[in-house]
Amino acid sequence: MEVAEVLVKALTAYGLIGAVFAVAFVTMGIQRVDSVAEHAPLGFRLIVLPGVAALWPLMLVRWFRSAPRAVPRSASR
Question: What is the C-alpha separation between 77 and 75, in angstroms, rounded?
Fold first, then answer.
């Protein structure tokens, strides 16, 4: 296999992983990294989607380093 083929396959894999990660991050993880983005409209999430796909290793680290959100206790206790 030539070097160019390996490079193309590596970039394809990076892009596919980034696309899958970006969808998961924008739907579930963005509120853990940025609390303001929790109530962001769909338009904002679509705008940041390509950037998240391109920078998915950095976003993955930020997602795992962010503190889990505390679940508020119900007032019925």
Answer: 6
